[in-house]
Amino acid sequence: MSFMRYHFFGGLIVLVGLLVSASSLAQSPELSQSPLAGHLGSVNSVAFSPDGHILISGGEGILKLWDVSSGKLLKTFTGHTGLVSSVTFSPDGTKLLSGSWDKTIKLWDVGTGRLLRTYADHSGWVSSVSFSPDGKKLVSGSWDSTLKLWDVDTGTLLKTFTGHSDEVRSVAFSPDGTKLLSGSWNSTLKLWDANTGILLKTITGHTEGILSVAFSPDGKKLLSGSADKTLRLWDASTGTLLKTFTGHESNVISVAFNPDGTKLLSGSSDVDGTLKLWDASTGILLKSLNHNSNVESVAFSPDGKKLLSGSFDKTLKLWDASTGTLLKTFAGFPDSPWTNSVVFNLDGTRLISCTGYESSFKVLDAKTGTLLKTFTGHSDEVRSAAFSPDGKTLLSGSDDRTLKLWNADTGTLLKTFTGHSGSVSSVAFSPDGKKLLSGSRDSTLKLWDANTGTLLKTFTGHSDEVRSVAFSPDGKRLLSGGRNNTLWLWDARTGTLLKTIHTTTIPVGLLFLPGGNQVLVITEANVLELRERATLELLATYENTAYYTDYNYQPPLTPDGQYEIYVYYQSAFLKKVPSTVNVATNSPVVVPQQVVAQPGPVPALHNRHALVIGNSTYKHGSSLENRPVNDASDMAARLKALGFQVNLVTDAGKAQVEQAIGQFSKAAQNADVALFFYAGHGVEAEGVNYLIPTDARLDDPEDARLQAISLDLVLSEMKRYRTKLNLVYLDACRNNPFRSWSRDGGGRGFKTVGQLAQSTKVYYATQPGEVAQNGNSRNGVFTSALLKHLQAGIEIEDLMRQVTVEVITNTRNNQQPWSAGTLLTKFVF
């Protein structure tokens, strides 16, 4: 039996580096010091070496070693398959320890970059790791609610500490190594005897989960940071609360003592991304410094003269502790180029890059990244491209509704194929190179003769855009993925539809595995589905459990040989790995079909209109404690600050809501962006989603049709707009008031909406059929997360990824935001 291993990379240069050598990426200064070779996601953990000369940062699956004085990237460590949540140096500075959401702890050699050992026994994400003062033991804390003590050299699990009733978010050794401190999401700290495992003390006082803990240098005090927005200082021997530090506006994610214990440092998920420096004895705030997003990790240098912070904004910053001056921002954290498609030729030596908003595409040397040729000729954005099996010709599909065939060496345009009435979203060559296949926004697939340009067949049946297409290895079958969450299997010769199935989200990438009996489907929700070719039966699902697009899939098993599947966001290429061949030097044998757009140039969308509705007080049903009105009022204020013209409507009856929708339709007709936000009761009745006005009296499901507002009304109005972007946010209760009017009660939630207008996306507070939580604070759970992360300069997909993580975390996996639709335009608030 064999397996496939998944590697997820957020940037082109990293993917190219892997084609050269997996180990050279970590060890080659030429590759590591490239301006593109940095963290492509949040920086979640940072630490100084004992001598303060180098520092380590951990992010989405990788660790990076930096020179403090020059800012030079020294080494990249790869091996984790999940977000790196915690990093630390050994006391002698020769080793590194990392904990990850892949549920493992890894030990590394600082000098060589070699992986020395992997420690695995946790059943949940590893959130925190720490060396004992003598470097002989390590402790790890996990979302499985345990701490584990390990022997560093042998890897032996020495002891498991149980007693927390929720995730252990942070752990630390006392300076003398005799005690352990742990902080949990259940709002408690626990102090343990490190040798016997006996629980010495449980400390309570925080009102929300604890995210970070630390011992003072003399071991006499404890420090904790919490989701209740405070830091708290405790007496280690008695558990007495000595001082509470207030000033943060959101979760305190990371805390640290300076070397003499006189100052404290805290990092927070405040809207403006703050780290704060405090006087430990007086509680006075000495300094407040800023990132552009959550400060995930903080540290003092060994001499206490510098501060280090890592952030969700993908930067690592070094500050002067006395003046607050920013000394250095460590390079190498850029967003990836926004790329519609990246494909390799079969020997892995060349690649095609199609960049957003460009009507040309480029061929690059895969090893060096050197530009070999630019192909121009399309009149609109190039959406997809492919190499012929022999690598001599190229095929491209564009928003100009054409396919073009090119000579790969000379760049000469050989043929233009016309016939689609919509953008060409995906293209592929047949295995023998004699036929071409295209998928389009006109809802059709078309099969073409590559030599003559003749249209051989049009395949109809899709009711929405065809997002992905592929030939089976024998060329006898075609597979297509539709934007309406469907997979279609066709007979290539007759055009007969053999099978169609519904998927949970949009199939955006398709890859037949060798032998042709299985197909890998890559979905828009970053889930891999392994399906049987003939029946499309689902064989296995590999979910992104860490809620990130990078590095988080577990290896599935296949019956025919060992394979490495490299996933570049929502596309993949396959490398066969015979037992006698080195994985790193083998070439890919299957090229990707489709890659989703990545961050890049953003159009200026300044004309912004929003309708914001919040209904709390219902005349004929249970009210919602004013939270929806708070949600709407706070969202309106935030959107106004972001340049939206906002119409705020609260506690509105049916006539008032309909009037507001009519006014919004007139105002937003020619806007760049139209945004609709609703908080309040909402139900699905007889297959239709309804927003419930405050004067509705619903004694029977049939009453909803006459007394409630159909969501379809809003969406159909948006189809008439000439906007570049339509956004819909629904923090509706999603329960059926015919059974229960409680926001947290049972009942059915909204169903998934049908066909949407182009560049329209609907964001739900929770999954279809589920109930959104009302929350226990000023705002509902979903809106609270939205307000926290919605700030000027954030890209909408980054925003919703952060919101999703926040909601899932705060509800302990009981609520997961959902979305429907596709954005064809990037948008930055």
Report on the structure:
This protein is mainly beta and 829 residues long. It is built from nine helices and 61 strands. A six-stranded mixed sheet has the order 54-53-55-59-60-61, with helices on both faces. Strands 50-1-51-52 form a four-stranded mixed sheet, with no helix packed on it. A four-stranded antiparallel sheet has the order 2-3-4-5. α8 (781-789) packs across α9 (796-810). It starts with a strand and ends in a 7-residue tail after the last strand.
List the helices and strands and how they pair.
Blueprint: E1 2-8, H1 12-20, H2 22-27, H3 29-32, E2 45-48, E3 54-58, E4 62-67, E5 73-78, E6 84-89, E7 95-100, E8 104-109, E9 115-120, E10 126-131, E11 137-142, E12 147-151, E13 157-161, E14 168-173, E15 179-184, E16 189-193, E17 199-203, E18 210-215, E19 221-226, E20 231-235, E21 241-245, E22 252-257, E23 263-268, E24 274-279, E25 285-290, E26 295-300, E27 306-311, E28 316-320, E29 326-329, E30 339-344, E31 350-355, E32 361-365, E33 371-375, E34 382-387, E35 393-398, E36 403-407, E37 413-417, E38 424-429, E39 435-440, E40 445-449, E41 455-459, E42 466-471, E43 477-482, E44 486-491, E45 497-502, E46 507-512, E47 518-523, E48 528-532, E49 538-542, E50 557-558, E51 563-568, E52 571-576, E53 608-614, H4 627-641, E54 644-650, H5 654-668, E55 673-680, E56 682-685, E57 688-691, H6 701-707, E58 709-710, H7 711-720, E59 725-732, E60 760-764, H8 781-789, H9 796-810, E61 818-822
Parallel strand pairs: 1-51, 53-54, 53-55, 55-59, 59-60
Antiparallel strand pairs: 1-50, 2-3, 3-4, 4-5, 6-7, 7-8, 8-9, 10-11, 11-12, 12-13, 14-15, 15-16, 16-17, 18-19, 19-20, 20-21, 22-23, 23-24, 24-25, 26-27, 27-28, 28-29, 30-31, 31-32, 32-33, 34-35, 35-36, 36-37, 38-39, 39-40, 40-41, 42-43, 43-44, 44-45, 46-47, 47-48, 48-49, 51-52, 56-57, 57-58, ...
